[in-house]
Amino acid sequence: MTRRQMISTSGLALLALLGLLFLVLSDAGAAANAEAFDPARFEALQASEALVLVDVAASWCSTCAQQDALVARYQASRPDVALHVLRVDFDEQKEWVRHFKAPRQSTLVLYRGSERIWFSVAETREEVLFEVLDEAAGAGSATSGR
């Protein structure tokens, strides 16, 4: 490989890396409207029969970041759906990780009041997540346009 080819290849690699960094930062900007998990807040939401998505996540988890972006897109496309997102820190809140029986980070648990209506690990398909949330919210196919 010539020096010119090496420089060209290095330049392309740098551009690819910068593009990836942009994508990561733009997804971070689209973070879901999540609250840190608090047991009292969770109990209050359950008592009011609210729709609550418990998101067991870790800051270092790329699947969690994908899920966060999906939930943010859902919330942006369905502003009339009162979805409360409570984030359990996988590394710091081990008691709650066990409570929700999360086998790993990227676990999503959906509640309507005290009833658990959905449980998933590493789900990143938009159509699946949107359909589950629409059904739970009673939105059905009327708001399923994405």
Strands, helices and their partners?
Blueprint: H1 3-29, E1 34-36, H2 39-47, E2 51-57, H3 62-77, E3 83-89, H4 94-99, E4 107-112, E5 115-121, H5 126-137
Parallel strand pairs: 1-3, 2-3
Antiparallel strand pairs: 2-4, 4-5
Q: How would you characterize the overall build of this protein?
A:
With 146 residues, the chain is α/β, with parallel strands linked by helices. It folds into two domains: 1-30; 31-143, Glutaredoxin, CATH 3.40.30. Helix content is 48%, strand content 21%. It has five helices and five strands, in the order αβαβαβαββα. A five-stranded mixed sheet has the order 1-3-2-4-5, with helices on both faces. Strand 2 (51-57), helix 3 (62-77) and strand 3 (83-89) form a beta-alpha-beta unit. Mean pLDDT is 84; it is low at 11-29 and 140-146.
Notable traits:
146 residues, alpha/beta, Glutaredoxin, 2 domains, five-stranded mixed sheet, 5 helices, 48% helix, 21% strand, globular, disordered C terminus
- What is the oligomer described by this structure? single chain
The proportion of residues forming helix, as a percent range, comes to 40-55%
CATH class of the largest domain: Alpha Beta
In spatial order, strands of the major sheet run 1-3-2-4-5
Secondary-structure-derived class: alpha/beta
The stretches of 5 or more residues where confidence is low (pLDDT under 50) are 11-29, 140-146
Largest sheet descriptor: 5 strands, mixed
- The string of secondary-structure elements, in order, is HEHEHEHEEH
CATH superfamily of the largest domain: Glutaredoxin
Give Rg in angstroms. 19 Å
Named at the architecture level, the CATH assignment of the largest domain is 3-Layer(aba) Sandwich
In the CATH scheme, what's the topology name of the largest domain?
Glutaredoxin
